Fold these 3 entries.
Entry 1:
Amino acid sequence: MKTFFIAAITSLALLTSSCMENKSENKETELQAIFPKGELGPKENFTGNAWNIGLVANDTMYNTLVGNVYFEPGARSNWHTHGAGQILIITDGVGYHQIKGQPKQTIKKGDVVKCPPNVMHWHGASPDTGMQQMFIVPNTEKGIVQWLHPVTDEEYNNAK
Amino acid sequence: MKTFFIAAITSLALLTSSCMENKSENKETELQAIFPKGELGPKENFTGNAWNIGLVANDTMYNTLVGNVYFEPGARSNWHTHGAGQILIITDGVGYHQIKGQPKQTIKKGDVVKCPPNVMHWHGASPDTGMQQMFIVPNTEKGIVQWLHPVTDEEYNNAK
């Protein structure tokens, strides 16, 4: 009887432990990934690791470029502009978006932000949590992207 | 001692049961919802329940309309066209997309489909599994949507 009880307790403990482990493993992955990770963005345009995958290539039928970026914690784009602006859709995680001259915004899963045409901005993950973000570059006949200088640590960490 | 064992077994059994229940509950929810559900699409334009939420309103700066639709199992849009085409991005679940004259496609999480300008198409969930789908209507100066007739059960279920 005692052996039975010990066996039963051990089995249940293992089952519970396994169930709880599966749940925490899910949280440690790169957030909720909808798309393949893609390729690392070049160091010339990003600080830290930003994984880019194209979803809709630019063409003359839709004039719309769409992609997904997974920013690892601390990673961000350089300052840059878009000839017709850009739309960002955050599908998981937490990050930042800043338009030149405006306060840095904290953005998270479910948020949508827009940057107007020919206005400098940057975006990336928060220091501790990554960010899954889709982007839409509309009206590509007006230009796609013009990359500028990196975002300094001071700018990245600035509370404003 | 026997009381202790019984209490321990009961506690562990409840803990395991609760852990497993949480996991299955997640699967029974409306898939991975990134955005609020929104409003039911009108019966004039949809068969079954299709929940629409706007993400980017149409304007003259971006000329791009973006939204999310959660199609419940069996739900679909009517046949319709878009003046500058449409891009669909499936973020969870399984569904169908059909361009007039072409075979019905099965689409799932991570897929991206495009419908050219002024071409009839419909999209919706599969019979047993819902679908979370973002849509992009680009170049809205050419038109947004023209709704047509419902998709018949025969068309919806057609293997072709």
Note: The longest strand of chain A covers residues 86-99.
Entry 2:
Amino acid sequence: MNEIIDALKKFRDERDWQQFHNPKDLSLALSIEASELLEAFLWKLPEDADPEKIKEELADVFSFAFLLADACDLDVKDIVLAKIKRNEEKYPVSKAKGSARKYNEL
Amino acid sequence: MNEIIDALKKFRDERDWQQFHNPKDLSLALSIEASELLEAFLWKLPEDADPEKIKEELADVFSFAFLLADACDLDVKDIVLAKIKRNEEKYPVSKAKGSARKYNEL
Amino acid sequence: MNEIIDALKKFRDERDWQQFHNPKDLSLALSIEASELLEAFLWKLPEDADPEKIKEELADVFSFAFLLADACDLDVKDIVLAKIKRNEEKYPVSKAKGSARKYNEL
Amino acid sequence: MNEIIDALKKFRDERDWQQFHNPKDLSLALSIEASELLEAFLWKLPEDADPEKIKEELADVFSFAFLLADACDLDVKDIVLAKIKRNEEKYPVSKAKGSARKYNEL
């Protein structure tokens, strides 16, 4: 992942774009890209989405997610593994298995 | 990153959740988490967001992004590096340096 | 508002689009348009957004919001006024005045 | 609609919240609420969403949409009817009937 983040930062710095990359606008950008990804599935069944569009937009989502993690000094692996641990308590297997319910409705 | 994806899939499979994880609903979930991350900055200056909330929600964003990449058989590093290459053409340094303009307004 | 909803339904029915307009995809569309509106402000100060883009995208947001209200048989005025009443309890003036805090942090 | 907007502004002004309601943060709020509405449908078929949640979140979407229209001095009916007209050109009945394709793919 460091290779990805370094490539993203090099691209950003070549264009002198760090001035725009405060965490609020990075989150805005991430949300916008997540919606562009969603558009691949609009009016369609999951299996009918254009795979090229999914690939393109998911790449954009990851780009801003990695930049945001870097801007906020967060290690991606650490925060995801920590979240999985917390989710193990919110969604115990005995209650959550086979259920799509949110934790406060289990 | 494989370690992250394996941990996410183990958590999912322990709970028999793969039945819900079609790409359309995964994109929905990703978009919803991106908005929860955005909420950390609502009504606030970038520097005033709660760092714990950013960490929590960014972890959720990455979780669904990795699950979606896996569901669509995409390699995260490959697709991001490929997108950076395409962006080098859309945003040549000579035109894009120091500018926040979208590529079709350069 | 009935005039707006009638015009939207006429446009939809001329194109035989009701088949696509289930509430889930209408909500997807609404979310996508809300993000396109957000893009008007990306990397910018609030006052620097393009007013034409705001007008265009906000019109799209309202279009899908009205179609969704109609699809779910909801009266827009009733639901908004009811929500304001509920919010008066969640955000009593004595606690909420001048504060951007969410109700569970008051 | 004026009755709705007046009620929203009265609620806002009683709490001295206009200081937070710049168009960028209003768009953020609108996008966040659109995602909360989307959550009603997550992992579910369209017909299985909780109608109370749809009502609640759609009311929030409309609240911020109306506040944004007012902040940007836009007449909701005018902008939606104007957008329908533009869409009649982007989506001529002869090409768009029965099709979910985006205008640039017709």
Note: The CA atoms of residues 61 and 99 of chain A lie 28 Å apart.
Entry 3:
Amino acid sequence: MSARIRWPRRNDPKSIRARQQTLGLEGVVVEQDLEPYARATEALTGVAPVPVAVVGPLEMELGHYELEEPAGALMERGRTSDSVYVPLANTEGGLSISLARGARAATESGGFKTHVLRDRVTRASAFLFESTLEAATFARWIETRLREMQDWLAGAPVEGLSRHAKLREIETHVVGPMCHLLYAYTTGDAVGMNMITRNSYALNQAFVLEHSPVKPRRVYLEGNMGGDKKISHRYFEGGGHGKTVIAETTLTDEAIQRVLKTSAEELLDLTFVGTHGAVASGMQSVAFTPATAIAAMFIATGQDVGMVGTSSMAHGTALRVDGGLNVSIRLPGLEVATIGGGTTLPYARAWLGLIDCEGPGKVYRFAQIVAAATLSLEISASAAMATAGSENFYKAHFERGGLR
Amino acid sequence: MSARIRWPRRNDPKSIRARQQTLGLEGVVVEQDLEPYARATEALTGVAPVPVAVVGPLEMELGHYELEEPAGALMERGRTSDSVYVPLANTEGGLSISLARGARAATESGGFKTHVLRDRVTRASAFLFESTLEAATFARWIETRLREMQDWLAGAPVEGLSRHAKLREIETHVVGPMCHLLYAYTTGDAVGMNMITRNSYALNQAFVLEHSPVKPRRVYLEGNMGGDKKISHRYFEGGGHGKTVIAETTLTDEAIQRVLKTSAEELLDLTFVGTHGAVASGMQSVAFTPATAIAAMFIATGQDVGMVGTSSMAHGTALRVDGGLNVSIRLPGLEVATIGGGTTLPYARAWLGLIDCEGPGKVYRFAQIVAAATLSLEISASAAMATAGSENFYKAHFERGGLR
Amino acid sequence: MSARIRWPRRNDPKSIRARQQTLGLEGVVVEQDLEPYARATEALTGVAPVPVAVVGPLEMELGHYELEEPAGALMERGRTSDSVYVPLANTEGGLSISLARGARAATESGGFKTHVLRDRVTRASAFLFESTLEAATFARWIETRLREMQDWLAGAPVEGLSRHAKLREIETHVVGPMCHLLYAYTTGDAVGMNMITRNSYALNQAFVLEHSPVKPRRVYLEGNMGGDKKISHRYFEGGGHGKTVIAETTLTDEAIQRVLKTSAEELLDLTFVGTHGAVASGMQSVAFTPATAIAAMFIATGQDVGMVGTSSMAHGTALRVDGGLNVSIRLPGLEVATIGGGTTLPYARAWLGLIDCEGPGKVYRFAQIVAAATLSLEISASAAMATAGSENFYKAHFERGGLR
Amino acid sequence: MSARIRWPRRNDPKSIRARQQTLGLEGVVVEQDLEPYARATEALTGVAPVPVAVVGPLEMELGHYELEEPAGALMERGRTSDSVYVPLANTEGGLSISLARGARAATESGGFKTHVLRDRVTRASAFLFESTLEAATFARWIETRLREMQDWLAGAPVEGLSRHAKLREIETHVVGPMCHLLYAYTTGDAVGMNMITRNSYALNQAFVLEHSPVKPRRVYLEGNMGGDKKISHRYFEGGGHGKTVIAETTLTDEAIQRVLKTSAEELLDLTFVGTHGAVASGMQSVAFTPATAIAAMFIATGQDVGMVGTSSMAHGTALRVDGGLNVSIRLPGLEVATIGGGTTLPYARAWLGLIDCEGPGKVYRFAQIVAAATLSLEISASAAMATAGSENFYKAHFERGGLR
């Protein structure tokens, strides 16, 4: 065991400089003024300046959405068209031109249409008892308390509650001597993990434990049914951790041939092979490379990059229809924000601003742009794979000017 | 449909400036010299300078590994101890102090031990036929051709083959009229997606199609059994897309109490609840927040952030043993590199250098450090959750100095 | 291609005899009077007389349940104790004595407690459109029509509707250009596949297609989201295809030692290994051998044996509590009936009668008895596995008087 | 707690009669001579005579297979045609005529072709240690011991070993402080659970524990990675618990129209909807109703009905090809036997004899017939579902002469 030095975690200029010097860091990682980041992370020491490409335009028809109160159902209030250039923080040569090619094929086919289907974020607390009998008793009792809990939160009886995190539904899951209690919230334009944590803790401590007819052996704020940062079928199917969004376009045969250098038949055969390959290997998603586009947009816009995996759960389809090939991608749990967290940093605000997604009232727009960008890359990558022997996919990996 | 402007994708200074001006970008995202990034991404326009914390030390006992030739089995050649400070690119207040706390608990318990179990990366081509009879005939034929394929690659009969990507095994999967053909490679210190793509394309076109007794209707370089960027059970269980690594430590009761402010009993009850919650919600992983640590290290060190989801597949355990609580995390497919791609950029080299992981011969070391960092955060986050009512987890979300 | 004979499918005595003679069948398979089976299956030709063991007693505390109208929530109206001997149709030497041993351990520990948590059966129709836009429009429209559909069914506007199949909820799932429409029913004491098929067909044809604002390209009664005879996470987690039942008991240390010849510590270590083994291999269930007990009871009582797989989805737990080891098994989708189908045959009525489960009003009782029998076998099989090196499990396979 | 009677478990005529009288059983369940069943199950008390339909013919081209020694690879040694009538023990009106219809459509299209791809059965023991370090050390040691273990078994050093259970491969899986050890055997014409249990126990106790460089805290014969009676991805993808079989046929458009009353286009649209519905609901299989046919054949032929769920894991495909629609079903783990266990009972021998599958040397033939029967029902059920609005599926449930 090495002798331990005392590692300062404070972010005043002196502490930062001390860390930099102790570690012998120099150059691009420490040249920048770190003051704007002082509240972003403890033990701040430098930066990782990830290069950002900008490509476009993505021609899109977007929906406008509102939550209907008090139930929180998502209502579509209209649809408008727009044209956007998207920022992609990445170091993967070929990504940005490929995404741009997919966008162009969509543009030539009339553009993307995007749809938001659901908006919730879940904190799943867990109550451990000594028997199923107790857990089931607890579940039956709590299941009828939603209205009371909503009223209790609205009354703001304890400090620190968030009024942006609105409790919409609760659900119980009893297995053996434990009862998981799933709180489903809406959280405005933030992802909302902090606010739902605070409200759920308050509910557990000051409402549930106070009134429960049976006393648990343990209470945990989260018992792993909440869908946070680990992929699960529950959230793949039904959403509940972020926005459920679908982007679609109906590619014309002409665009498929001229822009994508392949045919609907080759794409459909690829879809056949790819869907059954997904099933065969136990993939939950059916898609080619959604995480690539999502990661690139998440880094640029200050999203929580730990949520790339869950946000990339994807269910893609391709169907021959009148006029071409309808292709779509469903992202059941896109965890995006336009306020709070990393989105408040200057670089994130700049890149969000580029797509008119900075600040309040923009989160559904942002979710739809991410979905359209994701589908752009799916289209192009699939097309490269679908050419005879996947020649174009190979070429992209062989010839492109990326870093080797 | 808006009138389309012609969007330049070249990365000469003039093109870059043109894009920046067209988009009206200014400030931190465009101030930096972009020349070092010119080969990283087409349509380069700016940067996203993600703040990086550095915490430590992580006291570790690491294994030294070599691939036994020609089979490619991973052999442990010794074990040594080290003490490292890890870079965490993140904007999530609380992350870095939490990870540091977990590391401290491990240090007080004797440090981490890490193990690399497997190293492979897979490209799964697909051959589509008109019947199962043909696909099964093809499968029986190709299954006995491994040696010939290895020899063929070694002879470098076509241009552009990578000699770093060594073919180790092949496997077939016949379902209906298709045969998926899984090529398993080792790729040295790179993740190797480009090199295995080139070698597999060559094998498909110049070896397989040349000699196959049945002619396929279509050949695809990848048919979705390859485990690339989408989580699947195949790669969760057996590895095959990156390094399979386990980090462990046996926490003493004293460290649990003094550093983590909880008890082994509370942690075990949490594990009970969390494991069953994972199963109940159809999570594949059993863990709390592995993606958080992995994303932070991936961004800092120039890894492919689109692989955060797959690299974060995790299987954690906790068991009462003599001397305390043995806790571990298994990352079956950690897709890391110390050469190539984003790792060649100056910022990535700086942060990799900090942990002595820059360049060739370092990839197993790097994989083990990432695993230890991931376990550090698991320990601390679990402990915060395990305190009565998860009080400490709540406090971290309520009080920490993060961005709101 | 062989010359084809015309194969009679009618079940009059002459046709039956003709089939028996053509096939040259004799002995036990054709000796029995087949008249009682004439309506059970077309092309009736003989029988398969499966041997039935009877073991017990299972000491149980059962819940009494009613559906609250009109929502269909399951209400517990009281609890009573009973002692039952269960029929097990099987040919697996060792099964019945093992199950009996598990029951005895529970008896000595105070008996089983059983709980029914949910009761639903789902038919998931699917509407295929030309775009997501249409599918999403359809979904938004239908989601608010539950009340109208319930009223429509109650009015019995077309012939052949079942009044036992009560529609309780509907749910939509839009992915690409299709909208799955999940009808959740209760069906009294039958499993109800026929009745929900009829009602759903009527709803699709005479209500949905009649009023839908968008016209689908295709309508299918079932699009594979309904959970019928194939295991899926949806129905494992939330139930919805049969009864969700939990059986539990808290084994005393004395019973574990004296009856089961093991210890709580050995059982807990086995649970640790078995739960992680389940996760590692991608099992959805966490259990050892639930299908064995369920198959044996299903055959004896005329249940649909094609539902053994789905009915055996199981989530077991074991937790150290005051007084011993609480063990439980959750069967989320136990598809059982006490009326209709095979349960009307004389042998099934006899075996259902033995456990006082024949006819209307008995289905929740039956579900609880099946769950208790399943847990009995789990306890005993786990105990055999938990002994040093699994010696007792080995002995059961080596020494028991089974068929080899 | 009721007063307990002592329940006899012996199967002499007096004990049997005593049980029958105590329980007050009469009629068809106790009329039959039970002597032939005396060794099938303890506490034998009666029978459940399940009605059996016989339908056909299924026109098939089957493969002939042998295991290549010593590796145990499955070699196809030729293919021949046959025509079989299959026994279906069931009480589900409509099943047998539907299956017959599917068979007729295949016959008119040239018949089925069947393929066996793999044959293994796995027992997965588990060794629990105090640390990952020990578990990994154990794994590295055991992985190179296959040859020694095979020789040891061949030498028959302890009593009771089965020479039919041949060890072919071993595999380790380390997660945390445990090492699962998967023994893969072939077992001739039996499923072989008893024999692999005996051989694995002997290996664990007399070989592994004897020579292991690290001493485990616990050894368990099975730690839930073995795939026994619970569905798991591991065995869905790769087989390893039973026979991996595919049945296929290429339906002509004429047969689809004339026999099945639908079209290739309607079937393909259904496949689109059904495959995506399977993915959406987290089904592992892609199929409609494989368990129905498998259960019916298993009951009639004395198979282990607890294995209906695992044997029914299925991956179906449909692809437009020259000449019609190629349809197939892959059963990765069909657990069938033609000797041992329930297959030795008179009724099972009679029904196995009907399809020329009784006794040694018949198991691959039997597996292929089950697969063809399963595909027959898939074809017909899918066709019924594919008609406009699924009218024919509805009619089958409404009009057929089944039991209500």
Note: The radius of gyration of chain C is 24 Å.
